[in-house]
Amino acid sequence: MTSPCTMTTQPDHNIGSPARKAARPWRMAACAGLAMLALSGCAENEGFKAGCPNVGILRDAGTLRTDQGVAVLSGIFANCAYDDTHVNIAANLDISGRVNEGGSATSLPVTYFVAVVDPNRNIITKKDFSTTILLNGGTGMVQETLEQTIPVPKTVDARWYEVLVGFQITPEQADANRAANEGR
Question: Model pTM greater than 0.90?
């Protein structure tokens, strides 16, 4: 049995009994009334549970190729908590690295950024961070702990905000990463 609010399509709009056609406006009114009731529940904050911002690695800035080696932002894991005026994000960022073939580097210094983007895609804040990946046997990994605060009250759903992480790279490096990522 279908819900009275489901939309069905028919190839010929003249198909159907007159009684069924007469009931259509009432069904539409009932659907509109149910929608208004559902939306009126949004006016109160009781029971409202705001979501966490999206946290991720900017695809075209997720790989850094240098003369010494290659670094990759290999994962980010985050959670959030609200207070009255902010949402606080705690994240762990995994950065892996490897020495270039034939290279002898024992460490790989990298600079990455953390940017907060609002729902309109405006950058609210962007900060650069530096770390060094120790390359034991040609490979290594470092885990960075990040904390970010977004000034939104708990009545605002922060899931429309984004926290983006990427390496601080040149436009040419971004183009090379984009070309390498096209087949994925």
Answer: no
